[in-house]
# Entry
Amino acid sequence: MRPVRLSVVTAATAVAALTAVTGCAEKSDAKAGGGGTVQVTASDSSCKVSKTEFPAGHVKFALQNKGSKVTEVYLLFPDDRIVAERENIGPGLSSTLTAEVKAGSYEIACKPGMKGSGIRQKVTVSGGKAVKRDPKLDAAVAAYRTYVQAQADATMPKVKVFTDAVRKGGLAAARKAYAPSRIGWERTEPVAESFGDIDPKTDTRADGLEKDQKWTGWHRLEKSLWQDKKIGATEKTLATRLDKDLADWQRRVGTAEITPTSMANGAKELLDEVATGKVTGEEERYSHTDLVDFKANLEGAQQAYELLKPVASKNDPALTKELDQQFGSLTKLLDNYRTDKAGYDFVSYDKVSEKDRKGLSDAVNALAEPLSKLAAAVSK
# Structure
């Protein structure tokens, strides 16, 4: 169960800018559906699915939010691992999601308000036709699997620097090590979140807690370091807990279900993370290190795209031309806020003006719109 990453009020404001770009363009397509399209209609109290049985292969989901709250739609394995998702669908808006789905039993969950386990419908995927992949896509999946494992492996020593500083009570040292410890996680966050139970332990903010959930992880420590300005016994215990939970992530990341469409959808999810958390300043509200996370999200999205590009460029050359341009433009714009051009030191986000935040938001939206089409391009 993925935790909410921002308050519903904040989400509604942030998502308006993001989904205005993609939602309107996709609305007619979602309504029209199509013979092989599974239509999912979400409201504040229901999650209606046009068909509960459909064949395996590349499945297109046409998503509509008829409720008053921002919603998310998930395709889930029976154990709650995520097959595919589309987040931050604003009221009255529509979106599409393309996923490679194997035969088996699944659940479709709509999450009005982006909280809880969602309103669920069981669906069955029959044998269908086996997906015939271009060998280049198999190579892309293998390379991406290597990438996410390497990111997890490289993260653990950086996390230890951070947690050791907390255990020693070194406020300044812990603050310095905090943002670097998160880079590998932020680059590959959709894969970590696909397991369902790891992200709530490590990366939840206070307003994303479910009922009776204990607050643990990076952001709980962030609050202590910057707002409370103290490290006590509780924080030292939480540091050790973070080591344990992230070691679990490191062990399991190599077993994640990865397909070309999940890579493409994950790249889009990383841009959604930027739009609804980093640009708004919600993610790192105490440390204001949002631009470090922003950069890592962008790098992770681009890595997935570059691996899929050989096939996407063949199927939709106009799309990859636009993606190349938009990735380049956003990277160049973000680099203006780097204080160390060779590293990951960025301007504190509370020093970034509203005008500049709007410029960053516009650039993210300009990339998010064509990126939302990448999964369809690689599944042609």
